[in-house]
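Appendix B. One record, verbatim.
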Amino acid sequence: MYKIQTLNKISAVGLENFPRDDYEVASDINNADAILVRSAEMHDMALPESVKAVARAGAGVNNIPIPELTEKGVVVFNTPGANANAVKELVILALLLSSRPAIAANKWVAGLAGKGDEIPALAEKGKSQFVGPEVKGKTLGVIGLGAIGAMVANTAIELGMNVIGYDPFISVAAAWRLNQKVQHAETLDSVFAKSDYITVHVPQTNDTKGMINASSIKNMKDGVRIINLARGGLVNNADILAAIESGKVSCLITDFADEDLLKCDKVICFPHLGASTPEAEDNCAVMAVKELRDFLETGAIANSVNYPKTALDGAIPAQGTRLCISHKNVPNMIAQFTTVLGNAKLNIAGMVDQNRADLAYALIDVDGKVDADALATLSAIDGVIKVRPIYN
């Protein structure tokens, strides 16, 4: 029986994929094997040694202490692409709202309440203050061409926009998804210089934090409109407010509210709505549950943010053991594993070892049960982080 602790309300559609006979799922569970989380803050949590994996039902993992968990051999998963369509649709809404001041117009016309029969004439007379440009024929700069960025770029092409995309780390899969009309920029500066609208779709790292700042804004077109539904820290709020005040930036639409931003009438803040659709919540939960099940039941890793993608074909041998070993990516590790198993008179039926930077992860199928002494010997090897047996 595997125990899963939920830290947030998780979609029932996803949780239904845990077999009831094999899994216990609850928010107040003790000694959990894995944790399923959305936005709950985990940095100050004291996790029991029993935790083997954490799955984030979403893409961002800023709420998870990844370095600390990595050193303990805890695999951290996310669900890339599961909420991509939901975010894409909100970006397109933001793109249109940045051009057409529909929110301000709605607030203004709501103020006409009580004017009775005068309302149609007053509305007609006042509409000229809410003029905004069409997006067709304008240039959209898309920074980051992952699952969301690529979908945004393709939809903007369908709206008749010119699209410039920038992503030095674009994957082959993402490149195949892109409309051929999307122009590829070699530098960020070229995106800034040519774009009437800019939307950002990159993770927040030391390299990307504050990437929209006074210096980058200086290279942009006058009147540029900026959309940030990715991470709040990507934009330097003080710098963009100064640029709005000067007229350099026409509008900012962000999913990350801030006291100073709320005071500016040319900033539209959403309450982190990017993935707030029932479809996205279902998709993320389903993917996260599948990741946890695959890992707990077979040792396979997919969509991990800290350990390499790894899987071993075939079922665990009858009456056998699958060893899941997280370890440092240093020479002679596999030789030491096989020596220990050979000394224990155990035959290796299958093996795979993958690495990611200074970490590695091995799956080893053995004909027979690996006893406590052999497990202890494996665990004691210098560079081994965690050994987990799965018995058939």
